[in-house]
Amino acid sequence: MVFHEVRAKSVLNGVPGSSLPFSWTVNPYRGCSHACTYCMAGDTPILMADGRTKPLAELRAGDRIYGTELVGNYRRYKITTVLAHWETRKVAHRLTLEDGTSVVASGDHRFLTDRGWKHVTGETSGTGRRPHLTTGNKLMGTGAFVEQPTVTDDYRRGYLRGMVDDENEFRIPLADIEAMDRTQEYLDYFGVREGRGFLHQVRELAHWQIAPNPDWLKGFLAGAFDYLGTCSRSILRLSSRNATVIEAISLALKHFHFDFAIEELRRRRGVRVVRLRGGLRENLRFFHTVDPAITRKRDIDGVAIKSRQPLGVVSVEPVGEMALYDITTGTGDFIANGVVSHNCFARKTHSYLDLDTGRDFDGQVIVKVNAGEVLSRQLRSPRWKQEHVALGTNTDPYQRAEGRYALMPGIIEALTASRTPFSILTKGTLLARDLPLLAAAAEVVPVGIAVSLALMDRDLHKSLEPGTPTPAARLELVRKVREAGLPCGVFVAPVLPELTDSVEQLDFLLEQIAAAGATGVTVLPLHLRPGAREWFAAWLRREHPDLVETYRYLYGNGSYVDRRYRARLAARVTPLIEKHGLAPRGRSTDAVTGVPGDDDGVWPEGSLPVSVPAQRVDQEQLTLL
Fold first, then answer.
1. Residue 2 three-state SS
2. Using an 8 Å Cβ cutoff, are 130 and 119 in contact?
3. pLDDT tens for residues 430-458?
4. Residue range 2-31+351-526+561-580 in CATH 3.80.30.10
5. Boundaries of CATH 3.80.30.10 in the chain?
6. At 349, is the pLDDT very low, low, confident or very high (cuts 50, 70, 90)?
7. 199 within 8 A of 226, measured Cβ to Cβ
8. Per CATH, the architecture of 153-303 is what?
9. Which region ranges are annotated with the description Disordered (predicted)?
């Protein structure tokens, strides 16, 4: 976890023209320190979209890499984008596979096996019970990536030699700008200019080596592939009429222990083809060993992931605490040292449960250390009209970082001193620390408090909201807020169709909320905004594939669940609300359910200052919901 301490010039943010029941917000943190559970060693090579690799620690948001997607019965490689990148410190474990592949990751990290996703470590019984890797489990992928070549003078000379298919000419491939640029770069490096004596200089540089070293051979194979090679349907070939070139290619491949066949092309008399054997695993080893310039020839988008490689688990051993890294991607996974690795659940679950999903979310937290001081100054302005200020609309003000920086007491005191009504929306149980301050504030100004609580199922909570306060802890927070004499509304959001929407589940949840003393409740079905939609779809396919078609039917291509489902949910919730004494005063019970854009779904009673009308909930604008 990295905290960037800044001195803000302003912390009071306007919300012009919104449909929300407030016009101002205060967010003392940018990002969130709720726990990230999945992470790996920084030197883990990640498969990039251009076919090369880059250490996990060096990735940045916006980088294009390979993930996977399930298409029919096969999982296939798919180009995706890094949405976030962060660093933490955790106890790590070294995972070793049959073929020698080694990966260092946290015990919570998950890898794809031929039997589904499994954590690195776990227990077979008790509270730590979960699917985890054991000896004999087989991971999915190609196995370890090899190190990419260093560009030396010999590599450059070998590459230029690979561009020569005929002793009497030297051609720069005109179809691919990458090969043109590399060739020109290497010629410039050696001081070769077009004009008189050009071909002679090239021959001097690119002459055959009697005893070529590995760097020269790597460069030669890279140049030969750029000039003569193709890779289609996972079949890598190099073809030429020049017998000397074919022999040189064969010798170079043998040096690096590649298996290949030499074939004659019937339709092109005199052309011989060197075909690499071994499928995608050997193709990637070739690309990473020699590094051709032309990236389009290295494309594996859509290629199926097979389980033919010897990737059985040999051992999982602890290696102590160390710096670890992780990313969030558009597909929810990535390729780490040749095996399919899950990215952090916390990223996208936050985006649709009730947390901000900024790119620096929980690994790079910006802390406005002077938030209370700046807010106090802004609220003393003669132009300030004591309008409702909301906290928790973008990032949770009671995230774990608050335990270290304690910014909220100063903020509460500034709002109270200026007689500004305010509200807090949180899932953080640290709010209990400030209950005396909040109770004193409520004697001076109207105060609203709301807690979000999505579900009661412990296993589902661990899957969707890892590292966040448990449902039981949040219910206890509601109880403490009410015992302090303060109002507390509860957002039951999101309700997941077919997962958390049964009468029994809702009845038990609402019973617990009522027993905790909540002043009101609003029930909201899952809202799949862009970003959250892609993550949830991947999660659903992985964890509940039998529900994929149901969700397609309910959501189609939109963010909102079908209106008929909303009507059924409202019919199911309304009598339960009445049963547990949570019906709103002075308005229809129907107002406790809704979705973004509906006129009926409103903020739960107690969540807003008493002076603020209970407007409808707009999840499009309220990130925490």
1. strand
2. yes
3. 999 999 999 999 999 999 999 999 888 88
4. yes
5. 2-31+351-526+561-580
6. very low
7. no
8. Roll (3.10)
9. 584-609
